[in-house]
């Protein structure tokens, strides 16, 4: 039986070390068991997705289980590929004279608002465009919170930045047109402007990403945290930022909750935790809160993932 897909894009956010990757992997695995074709994507430089599934996962999509695929994105690799693609495209269509200028512009672009993040974003968009064929759902195990939030707000920042570049470029072209009045060669060269075309294509891509991210019916962000003071403050801040950008919150997952039967050694910590759990329910109850108990070992492989999967899947029903 194929379960109805609630959302096409699911992001798992939270600090490194909270068990975010495990939750993303368990959620993706739970969906795949329901007959939903699911791709799980990690941009976490620690590459713990491979650990969660207990098998190597690399830069190319590989099958992990029935209806489940995985890929780990390397930001640095993607950034290099991304700059090279832009460069090749440019150098292919312009004359030697402005090659140096273009190389310089590309170097600047590379140093511009987070080239690695922009490259990852490109990869996200490329993967998002594959929705429906072959995947029904894409689960993103994103890098730790601050970085991810910058990524999510990037379309707006870059959109403004690109508009500005297009405007500057258009002014330069106007000047060249004046200069080309008596120069047939130059007239031919500036008939179409590859740089403006490329910038506009980028702008459109970012607009698409923005549209996907703010489509609350199809996209949601889950936060994974531990029941401690700092993670609660950070999660609250992160949720506020996402809400300001109109991005849907799917729920909050509290990981490593000390069970009552943990015994006297954990008693003091468990009592402290009760306070934080109360706080979490008060603050985030409206989004839905799932709790995952502290397990006696790190999760390695599908059998253990399937134990916690139903706990996370419950959030979709809240």
From TrEMBL:
Keywords: Hydrolase. It is an enzyme of class 3 (hydrolase). Pfam families: ArsA_ATPase. The keyword Acetylation does not apply. Its EC number is 3.6.3.16. GO terms for molecular function: ATP binding; ATP hydrolysis activity. Gene3D superfamilies: P-loop containing nucleotide triphosphate hydrolases. Residues 8-312 form the ArsA/GET3 Anion-transporting ATPase-like domain. Belongs to the arsA ATPase family. This is Arsenite-activated ATPase ArsA.
């Amino acid at each position: 039986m194929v379960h109805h897909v609630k959302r096409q894009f699911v992001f798992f956010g939270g600090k490194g070390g909270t068990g975010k990757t495990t939750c993303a992997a368990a959620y993706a695995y739970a969906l795949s068991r329901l007959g939903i074709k699911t791709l799980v994507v990690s941009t976490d430089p620690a590459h713990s997705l491979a650990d969660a599934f207990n098998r190597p996962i690399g830069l190319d999509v590989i099958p992990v289980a029935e209806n489940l695929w995985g890929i780990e994105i390397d930001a640095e690799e993607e950034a290099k590929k991304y700059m090279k693609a832009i460069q090749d495209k440019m150098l292919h269509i312009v004359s030697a004279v402005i090659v140096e200028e273009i190389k310089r512009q590309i170097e600047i672009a590379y140093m511009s608002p987070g080239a690695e993040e922009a490259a990852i974003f490109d990869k996200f968009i490329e993967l998002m465009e594959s929705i429906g064929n072959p995947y029904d759902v894409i689960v993103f195990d994103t890098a730790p919170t601050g970085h991810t939030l910058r990524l999510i707000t990037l379309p707006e920042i870059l959109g403004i930045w690109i508009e500005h570049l297009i405007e500057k470029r258009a002014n330069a072209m106007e000047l060249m047109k004046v200069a080309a009045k008596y120069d047939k060669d130059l007239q031919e060269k500036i008939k179409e402007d590859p740089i403006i075309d490329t910038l506009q294509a980028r702008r459109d891509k970012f607009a698409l990403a923005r549209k996907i991210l703010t489509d609350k019916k199809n996209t949601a962000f889950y936060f994974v945290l531990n029941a401690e003071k700092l993670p609660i403050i950070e999660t609250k801040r992160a949720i506020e930022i996402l809400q300001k950008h109109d991005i849907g919150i799917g729920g909050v997952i509290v990981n490593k909750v000390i069970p009552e039967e943990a015994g006297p050694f954990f008693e003091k910590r468990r009592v402290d935790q009760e306070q934080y759990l109360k706080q979490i329910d008060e603050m985030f109850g409206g989004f839905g809160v799932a709790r995952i108990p502290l397990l006696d070992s790190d999760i390695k492989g599908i059998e253990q993932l399937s134990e916690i999967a139903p706990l996370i899947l419950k959030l979709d029903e809240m």
